[in-house]
Amino acid sequence: MSFEEILMKALASVKQEDVLHDYTPLLVVYKDGSIQRFFGNHSVPPSFDTVTGVESKDIIISPETGVYVRMYKPRSIQVGEKVSLLVYFHGGGFVLESASSPQYHSYLNALASKANVICVSVDYRIAPEHPLPAAYEDSWAALEWVVKGLAGDEPWLKEHVDPARVFLAGDSAGGNIAHHMAMRLGSSCDTSVKLVPRGIVMVHAYFWGTDRIGSELQKLTASERSPQGSLLDRLWKFASPGTSGSDDPMINPGMDPELGKLAAEKLLIFVAEKDLLRDRGFYYKEALLKSGWKGEVDVIETAEANHIFHLLNPASPDAAHLMDQFVAFLNSS
User: Fold this and answer.
1) Handedness of CA 306, 308, 310, 316 (dihedral sign)
2) Where is the active site (predicted)?
3) Which end of the chain has fewer CB atoms at under 10 Å, N or C?
4) Beta pairing partners, 58
């Protein structure tokens, strides 16, 4: 069954007369408070992947919240060998998916193998059950755990990670989270985690704003062309009910006067030509350079591609090319 067929089948099950909030094709909230998510409901356990030779395990980092991380370690890493660490934040609009979702488990197995890196995939809590800033706080707790692990609390980190080669990455909402973790790391008022990421990778990051830029107006449907009508505007307010709106610096980094404090030496941004979020990637680069940030930033666009195509069709040539560029970034000096 194709992606479109799965979606149509899911939408056909919606009881429209009972819907309170409609965020299709992601989820709907019913008047009785129940939630129907169309994606990200399945999970797979950690395992040894015979195809990639990568071993994974889950570690609960917060018994109070149940937040955990899934770690990935290629068995090709030799005793005493030090490699890079990738801390990854999954996507899903802050309302879907988990670190155990099959598509993320498969992707990080492949990425860890090809790049020969240790991966820590963060399973943060999602809205509306846990509205923002829960996802940001859980992700920060994961970074605190990583720092302790590097100091000796976690064998895979202590024995095999070069503390000078830590990278942050994420797709969609996870790209947004990676940005905000780097902002918090660069803040002089929060020193609970002493870590300077070597680099950040953002894939189709979920940033937005009140004013339409680039091709956004053309890509929106007629009913979505007002700020109130756009699914991205509504979804952000749904996930973050305390927000000031779509120009909140948490969703529009260009409005953040502290943007130049981003803690990273280099940044790689992936965008897709047909993705509604495409122009936000270029806007982010422009705003970052204007902020006085002194690092290196590059934007790579995939032609004729849509949002998270590399996860939806990982066997495609475009997905393989994105993977190669991702790996090259992690392995660059």
Assistant:
1) negative
2) 172
3) C
4) 70
DSSP E strand stretches across the chain: 19-23, 27-30, 35-37, 48-49, 54-62, 67-74, 83-89, 118-123, 161-171, 199-203, 266-272, 296-302
Q: What is the mean pLDDT of residues 32-57?
A: 95
**8 A C-beta contact, residue 43 and residue 37:** no
Amino acid symbol at 145: W
CA atoms within 13 A on the CB side of 262: 32
Q: pLDDT by residue (tens digit) across 209-259? A: 999 999 998 998 765 765 556 889 999 999 999 999 999 999 999 999 999
User: What is the set of active-site residues?
Assistant: 172
pTM: 0.95
Pairing of strands 161-171, 199-203: parallel
Per-residue DSSP letter, 316: S
Check pLDDT > 70 for residue 333: no
Which residue matches tokens 């990421």? 197
- Integer Cα distance of 178 and 301 in angstroms: 19
- The residue type of 126 is I
pLDDT tens digits along 250-293 = 999 999 999 999 999 999 999 999 999 999 999 999 999 999 99
137 near 127, Cβ under 8 Å? no
